[in-house]
Amino acid sequence: MYQDDDQGMDDANRAQKRTDRLFNEMMPTLRWLTVRQQKMWRPPTDVFETDESVIVKVEIAGMSEKDFAISLSNRNLSIAGTRSDPVCKLSYQQLEIPYGHFRTEVFLSHSIDRDEIRATYENGFLTVVLPKVKPYRVQIKESTAQEEEM
């Protein structure tokens, strides 16, 4: 009887190992399907400011300048594009780099000088510099007696 219990445990261990092996073999495929089913992803984005500007920095390697669509509507900055997989494989061993459509949006708490916005792409980082609108100072003129009568 003791020997039968050992045999049962051996069978259970073998079955568990087979199940684990099958699961591990299928995991890259399942992960690939999950990532591919996502319609859009958001790249890591930092936002910081200086006295003069708001700076948005997006980590997005493998792109070129023409691959980005950057727009500003009211105080909402939108950065979008598509990162293509340069080597489309049928089977991945590991897939952690997202591909496909992406979008990141940043609400800006300051008014921006639209004519002075600059964007650069270097070493896998897109940097957008958005200069703040400088406050307009209204000059007060001394009134003359003639202006007061009007």
**Count the strands?**
7
Shape verdict? elongated
Structural class: alpha+beta
Spatial strand arrangement across the major sheet: 1-2-7-6
Query: So what's the oligomer here?
Result: single chain
What fraction of residues sit in β-strands? 25-35%
Helix content: 25-40%
Q: What's the helix-strand series?
A: HEEEEEEEH
Largest sheet: 4 strands, antiparallel
Secondary structure tally, helices: 2
Describe the structure.
The protein is of the alpha+beta class and 150 residues long. The strands form two sheets. The protein has a four-stranded antiparallel β-sheet, with no helix packed on it. The mean pLDDT is 83. The N and C termini lie far apart (116 Å). It has two helices and seven strands.
List keywords for this structure.
150 residues; alpha+beta; four-stranded antiparallel beta sheet; three-stranded antiparallel beta sheet; 2 helices; 31% strand
Produce a short descriptive summary:
This protein has 150 residues and is of the alpha+beta class. The chain is built from 2 helices and 7 strands; from the N terminus they run αβββββββα.
